[in-house]
């Protein structure tokens, strides 16, 4: 077999998982082992590492249309960037996205990608009210969960969120956090 320091197949034998020549591990001359952390891999395009695990976020930009654009517009309004909810990503929406991005130290390219989604989404739960709740309600309807789009996170919205979460194999806690937002925005 040979010297364990030179044989990679034995590098972790006996609990010593240090790399040859490293300054850590029980055999290092500098003292007790120190913790090393491998850097996280870079996210794939259109994937954001928020919280635990990767989430896929839609890319929304000028010319886009539909319920995902309406969600962007409602979330912008919830953050104080009043935007008409016409489900069309035109010049007005682009201007508000750029303002939001600048104010949140993001690249102000007017494109809603993973970093902008991360800043835009708002955790929602029973009792919440406002345009961000309306965004959740619209997206629930896209996925077959008809609820009133009244901007109030009441019992029927909480039940619809819980049912949606169960369908998507998410924690069915009726709280709309990053995982639920990403799932609601997929195929919307």
TrEMBL record:
Organism in which the protein naturally occurs: Streptomyces chiangmaiensis
Name of the protein in question: Peptidoglycan-binding protein
Record region (Disordered): 1-56
Matching InterPro entries: Peptidoglycan-bd-like, PGBD-like_sf, PGBDSf
One Pfam family hit: PG_binding_1
Domain called Peptidoglycan binding-like: residue spans: 65-120, 129-184
């Amino acid at each position: 077999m040979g010297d364990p320091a030179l044989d990679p197949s034995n590098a972790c034998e006996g609990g010593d998982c240090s790399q040859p020549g490293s300054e850590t591990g029980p055999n290092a001359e500098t003292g007790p082992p120190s913790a090393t952390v491998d850097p996280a891999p870079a996210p794939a395009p259109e994937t954001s590492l928020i919280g635990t695990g990767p989430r896929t976020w839609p890319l929304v930009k000028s010319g886009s249309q539909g319920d995902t654009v309406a969600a962007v517009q409602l979330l912008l309004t919830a953050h104080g960037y009043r935007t008409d909810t016409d489900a069309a990503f035109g010049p007005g929406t682009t201007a508000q996205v750029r303002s939001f991005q600048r104010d949140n130290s993001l690249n102000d390219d007017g494109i809603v990608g993973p970093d902008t989604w991360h800043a835009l989404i708002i955790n929602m739960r029973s009792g919440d009210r406002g345009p961000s709740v309306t965004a959740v309600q619209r997206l629930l309807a896209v996925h077959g969960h008809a609820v009133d789009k009244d901007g109030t996170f009441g019992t029927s919205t909480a039940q619809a969120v819980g049912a949606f979460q169960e369908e998507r194999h998410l924690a069915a806690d009726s709280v709309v956090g990053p995982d639920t937002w990403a799932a609601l925005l997929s195929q919307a």
